[in-house]
What we know:
By secondary structure, this protein is of the alpha/beta class. Helices cover 36% and strands 16% of the residues.
Amino acid sequence: MKILALLVSLLASFVCYSQDAPILVSVQWLNEHKADPKLVLLQVGYLQFDYDKEHIAGAQFLWPGWLAPDSPSGAYNMPDAKTATTLLQGFGISNDSRVVVVHIRNEVSPAARMFLTLENLGLKGKVSFLNGGLEAWKKEGHPVTKELSVAKKGNVTAKPGGLLVDKDYVLKTLGNSDKGVVVDARATIYYDGEPTGNPRDGHIKGAKNIPYQGMLDEKNNYMFKPADQLSGYFTPVLPDKSKEVVTYCFIGQTASVIYMTGRILGYEMKLYDGSMQEWSRIEELPMETTKK
């Protein structure tokens, strides 16, 4: 009987990791799986101080600049495959790993960008996001620690997957509305044309608007809202899930929240990395305002 129980357990584990991971996982799920040797926890933050102060046991610190470095060409670029492979293996990520991204406080968008980046590096279907992040974990009474985690080197190889697109891809999408839709993730005031400091104000001509802030419950640890509520934002703008969605924002960070939301709802998503930082500077690229 013990052998049979072990076989059942091993089979259940195989099934769990052979299927695509859910985009969101709960605190309860993480608590039940935290001892799994294939689980890799990454706490995202701009300062090492926050991680050193407190984190979930076993979590490692992921600074956004490692996987989305700035350059003279713009903010939040993709690392080259060799550098990314070294970073991912250093976190202990292997081909059979299950990665869970954890945000701190209200910093959902940089963590969402890390979720997108990991998917784009070949881990699509193997990455999840702790809904509510570290604050939700603590709110439910689970402990945190200052103890640093040391990971055993993984064996994954980064393979960029084309989820980040350029301005030419956006133009092609705008020119073929039967296949794709462009979505501005910024607040409506900026979509309409409120000055932002960019060379041109307004939005990409023909783009729809789904403000990223609406996806999150600010009163509940900045959790993603339930799927039926998220659909209420998406369906009026994007009724056809057969169409690909290309989202953008100021620099490619907050649009990552819309990318994640679309993934939750079953849309095929991509992100225009240059976003308004690039588009507004190239005068021949079409823009418009709706500000009255």
